[in-house]
Amino acid sequence: MRFAFIDARRCQQWPVSVVCEVLGVSRAGYYRWRERQCRPGPRQTRHLAINEFLLNRARQMEHVPGYRKLWLEAQDAGFCCGRNQVQRLLQEAGYRSRTASKPGYRRSKSSLPVLPNLLNRQFSVGAGNRVWVSDITQVRCREGWLYIAAVLDLGTRQIVGRAMGPVNSSQLVLKALEHAWKHQRPAGKNLLFHSDQGTQYRSEEVMTWLNNRQVTISMSRRGNCWDNACAESFFALLKKEWIQPLGMIHRDEMVDEVRYYIDHYYSKVRRHMTLGGLTPSAYVAAS
Predict the structure, then answer these.
(1) For residue range 267-282, what is the model confidence (pLDDT) as tens digits?
(2) Closest-CA residue to 82 (of 131, 47, 107)
(3) CATH of 131-286, one of 3.30.420.10, 1.10.390.10, 3.90.105.10, 3.30.565.10
(4) What's the pTM value of the predicted model, to 2 decimals?
(5) Partner of 174 at 20 to 30 A CA spacing, among 2, 79, 93, 202?
């Protein structure tokens, strides 16, 4: 009965996390209950059977083959399916061949600029709106990937900007930057923005947006994740503390969970030793 109550109100004001906490039930239990309520039809049942075969076969082949070879495997096994259908099902399941390049980190065009590492791992910043660091991560959902772009203020350790969506592009970075700029309103000429060398950050749209606001741009050295360790560390915490216990959930549900973690738990509940044991919100209030 409590799970039905939560489900009836999941799209209203309160996120699932808050309602589950108030009613004394687990989020994972709610999502398992909700999944049992969704009974697949004949078409979905056929897709599930094909997808189960594809993923099992890929596991047997050490996740080496791509969708074309797995399509041939399905054909030989007697499944009636098209190559594009196999590609779509594997994408929705979040499968990638071990030999495929990581999404968003393919070799970029030579015309895209690479800027020096001005931050140089100087992660201790005395005030807010002086240094922002940013990165993009991906989270697997039932419909496929959810990409998360975050902008972290090194002075306060707050996530000042965020954006989420099913596509990893420069527009995701722009949305996160615009979200940060709207709420923080920094002096651009006093701000350093640091990221890795991903094509999203090196795009003309993002460079122009930052240059128009007189922001100084810094980039990590190629293949050196330690140059952007604070942003990497935030995503590691997000996945370990919040996302992993959820299991496989739908994309819109994951968006709600990530938004709640960033806006409430990480900012107002989680204490940071780099801030003297204060939460980011309490540190800003005390500054």
Answers:
(1) 999 998 889 899 999 9
(2) 47
(3) 3.30.420.10
(4) 0.65
(5) 93
